[in-house]
Each structure stands twice: as structure tokens, then as C-alpha cells.
Amino acid sequence: MNANIYRHEFRIRLKSVIIWSLALTFLIVFFFSLFPVFADQAALMNEFLARYPQELRAAFGMDNMDLATVLGFYSFVFMFVQLCLAIQASNYGFGLVSIEESELTADFLLSKPVSRRQVMTSKLLAALTSLTLTNLVVWVSSFVAITLFREQREYETGTLLLLLLSIVIFQLFFLSVGLVVSLLVKRVRSVTPYALGLGFGMYVLSAFSGVFGEVALELITPFKHLDAPYIVKHAAYDTPLVLLNAAATLVALAVSYWLYIRRDIPAVS
Amino acid sequence: MLKKIANHIFFKGVSLMSVIEVTNLTKYYGKSRGIVDVSFSEEEGEIFGFIGPNGAGKSTTIRLLLSLIHPTSGSAKVFGKDVVAHGPEIRRDIGYLPSDVFYYEGMKVIDLLKYSASFYDCDCTQRMHELSEIMELEMNRRISDLSYGNKKKVGIVQGLLHSPKLLFLDEPTAGLDPLMQRKFFDLIRAENARGVTVFFSSHILGEVQRLCNRVGIIREGKIVEISDIRTLQQNNYKKVNVTADGLNPATFDLPGVTNLQTENGTLHFFFKGDINAVLQKISAIQVTDVTIEEPTLEEIFMHYYE
Q1: Which residue of chain B is at minimal alpha-carbon distance from A12?
Q2: B115 contacts in A (CB within 8 Å)?
Q3: Beta strand segments in chain B, E
Q4: What share of chain B has pLDDT > 90, as a percent?
Q5: Which pLDDT tens digit goes with each residue over A198-219?
Q6: What is the mean pLDDT of chain B?
């Protein structure tokens, strides 16, 4: 780990972290401010939802949640938070080392007296710090939103913590998978399409998996590994799936190190 | 005193070692060639010129020595250590100026230089300011606002600020105006006088001749010749053009003359040997114009190709 690289990398992402954090805060607070309305009209709401085809409800993960309870409604909000976090983390993952190459600064950095392993570790830790800051903002705004709008309705703090704790696993998955893909392709020209592709792609897979009830897709997407309605319903993680997720993250990280240490840095032009 | 000097010379003689030692180094990018079976060495304190046309493998060689890329086969040692195994350690004493400079666009020059300096355990602030002053670099501007020539100056300062023992210059003069080029050459000479070894890659023969002790010529990935710059010049052809009325090509049919051609009343030929022989012939006739010039690199390569 090299403190200079860490600091440099952290500074580069600071603006992005602030923007994502603000966006997520607005998303959580405004979305959750609708909760009292939903809760008051629970019977009407559930009747209204029942009119939709079951497949559609499944696609939005609404077949398993009770929008009239604090955590039921929160888990609905949480899925959109997850989508944002997925895109952010993939963005950092894809850009972690590829931006240096596409902006041709890799020559500068790697001709310094640092090993590739140090470069990678410092960059990963810096990205992780940025993601953790966003994570903390999600925690705080979630608690604030729930306290402001729950209107004396009770909820299980433990389950909420379980949900919030899943964020870090979720972020790590997208960070490391983005990273490994960026090292597997020859050259990443622009990070955003890749990040949106991975983030939305996994989300859509999870939606499809809801529609078809297919097991295979659950194995791939973190939106299923850390399915918010499941966690709320069972007040627990789906342990095998979470372990699968963690294993995928670890493999992606190990392969990333292996590839990066052996990588030929493409020359200019 | 005398003993001290003798000691110094003796020990310097003993410590004279190859700073760069390249053995059968080969690099393929997939199927396309980088360099093939390149071997050479550079002694401490030398300025070694590495010349060749674009795409010959000059940058590939430098990038291999910096372990930015990994060899397909063969090996390279810098400071006596293998570049693949000891990269970070070796790079502590290396300064590198790439042919195309790219830096973090959003940063200010001063921040970039400080970032660069932070990788070395030395207080480089003073040297940084000295160099920026010599190169007339404005430190408070943003990298994205700089012209290509100014970015190049940033490159020069960041490559030199930690007082490296070995300098890699990859076509360093492109983008610098003649005045700056001269300052830059003076700077390199001063560094060299301090004992710094310089590896200078270029496709301009003239600047290599001005600066280097020894040159390696690379073409299509292979070393064609390694020689002392003097030997190269002595062996070298001069390109002579003579314009005169009623010129008889037979006048210049001397030993050492090749490629004799007449074109619109002008005689062109290459000459190798004592130039006085040609000058005598020229002074004997009434000429309208005479040029004697260095052959271009391409023409030298043609010579190596024949």
C-alpha cells in the first residue's frame, strides 16, 4: 500500500462520491416520505397491486413485500438504492486501472518505484474508502428517513441493520467484478457504458428471475444474493447465496491481481 | 593529493559497470513484432544513442527496461538487477521522459510534480524549482491548459527532479522549440557530467551525434549496428550535390564515390573517405552551387541494408 497513490486516488473520486451520496440521500428521503400515504391506504394499495399481473409484481420484487410495514416499504426503496450503488461500484471497478490506460497516465505511474501489487492495493483501498463513505451516507439517510416518516409504526432494528450491512458485500462484488472485466478486455475506452451495463444487467437478470422463478439466474446476480424482500421476510441472509457472492468477489480480486501484475501496459497511439 | 586522485581513478575504474545489460531480449505483442533478439550494454556515465525509424522498437526496448511490459524471452538487467524481478527497486534511480507526455488533466503542474516527487525518498522541492526555472515552466497552470511543448517541459522536470542515476529519454525533443531544445541538451550534458547515465532514443541523427558517445541502430526490431559515434561518422557517407555548367560526371569518378547521378544539371553522389579529395575536384571547376550534407537516417539505413 502506497499512501501517495491512495490519497491521489481518493481525491480524484471525491466529487463523484459527493454527487452519488447526495443523489442517494434524495432518493431515500423523498421515496420514504411517501410511506405514510402508502401505510394509511394499505388495504387499498394491496388491492390495487393485486390487479397487476403476478409476473409484473415479481419483476419489481413486490410479490414478497408488504408496503404497509416500515421495512416492507423500506425494502422497496432499498432495491433502487442497490441499483444506484451497483452502478457506482461498477463504475469505480471498471475505471480503477483502465482510466490510467485510456488517459495514458499509466506510464507515469508505473515508471515510479512502486510494484504493481502496491498500485492495485492502494487503488482498491481508495475506491473502497469512497464506497464506504457513500455507504455511511446511505445508513444515515435511511435512519433519518425512517425516523421522520414512520409515524410510530414499529420495525425490527436488527433486520434493518442486516439490510444495511449487506451494502458492503454488494459494493465489493461490483467493484471487483468490474475490475476483473476491465482487465480481461483489451482496452476499456469509456467506463460508463460498461458500468451501466453491469449494474442494470444484473438488475434486469434479477427481475427476470422473479418473473420466471428460475433458479439459475439467482446464482449470478447480487440483486438475488442480497434480495431485500427476502432479508426482511426472513430477518436473515440467504446464507448459501451470500457465500457464493463472497466467493465470486474473492475470485475476481485474485484474478485481477494476477492479470494486472502480468499486464503489458499498452503504449500511446 | 596525487594518491587521492589515483585512488579515485582506480576505484572508478573498478566500479565501472554495465548500467544496462540486455541479453537476447525479444518481445512479441501477440503475433506482431516488438523487438527480436536485442542485445547490448551501456556503461556507467555513458550517453547511449538509440536510433531507428518509427516503429523500429525503440520505445518497446525502453518500456521493457522499465517493466511496463514483459519480455517474451531473453532478459534485461539494470544496475545489475533483473528488471522483471526487481522493478520497483530499480526504478528508484531511474528518470523517464516518454515520447508522448500525458498527465492527469485536472491537476495543476505543481501538484503533479509534488505527486511525482512523493514517490522518492528525497526532498526534491529545491531541485524541482530549479528545473522549472531553467525550463521556464509555469507551475500554477492546469495541465489541461498546457500546450504540447509545455507538457513536455513538465515531463522533463518530473523525470529529473529526483536526481536519477539513469535517464531514459524517448524522443525527448519533439514539441520543444529550438531554444528549449538547446537548454534541454545543456541540462542533459550537466546531468551526465554529474555521472548520470543516459539512454537516448531518437530518430534524428543530428541530435544523437551532438550528444552521444555510442549509438545502437535498430531497424525492424533488430539491432543493425552498435558503434562508437566517431567510427560511425568516419564510416559515414557524405551526400554531395554539385551544380555547374557543362558538368562531366566522370570528373567525380573517384574511389569512395557511389550512387553518382545527374539530374537537371546537378550532380548527386555519396562519398565516403577523405573529403579533401572531393573538395580539390570541386575547386578545379566553376560551380554555381555546392552542398555537402549528412545523409539522412534513411540513407544510412540503406547503407546498412546493402
Answers
A1: B106
A2: 4, 8
A3: 18-29, 32-43, 47-51, 73-78, 81-82, 94-97, 166-170, 197-202, 214-219, 222-228, 238-244, 257-263, 266-271, 287-293
A4: 28
A5: 999 998 888 777 677 666 777 8
A6: 84
Residue B247 has pLDDT above 90, yes or no: no
Q: A108 pLDDT exceeds 50?
A: yes
User: DSSP secondary structure string, B70-106?
Assistant: --SEEEEEETTEETTTSHHHHHTTEEEE-SS----TT
In whole angstroms, how large is the CA radius of gyration of chain A?
20
Please check the confidence at residue A245 and state whether its pLDDT lies above 60. Answer: yes
pLDDT confidence of residue A130? 96
Of A103, A111, A115, the CB nearest to B68: A111
**Residue B13: pLDDT band by 50, 70, 90 thresholds?**
very low
Strand partners, B241: B268, B291
For A263, the closest chain B residue by CA position comes to B69
Judging contacts by C-beta atoms under 8 Å, the chain A residues touching residue B68 are 106-107, 110-111, 264-265
Question: Do B92 and A113 lie within an 8 Å CB cutoff?
Answer: yes
CB A183 within 8 A of CB A265: no
Half-sphere exposure of A179 (CA within 13 A, CB side): 30
Distance CA B232, CA A61 (A): 78
Neighbours of B123 (CB within 10 A): 9
Phi-psi region of A180 (alpha: psi -120 to 50; beta: other; left: phi over 0): alpha
Q: Looking at beta carbons, which residues of chain A come within 8 Å of B96?
A: 107, 111
How far CA A49 is from CA of A46, A76, A142, in Å, comes to 5, 14, 25
Q: Do A105 and B102 touch (CB under 8 A)?
A: yes
- CA-nearest residue of chain A to B103? A105
Residue B16's pLDDT is: 56
Most B CBs within 10 Å, among A107, A117, A121, A258, to test the B interface: A107
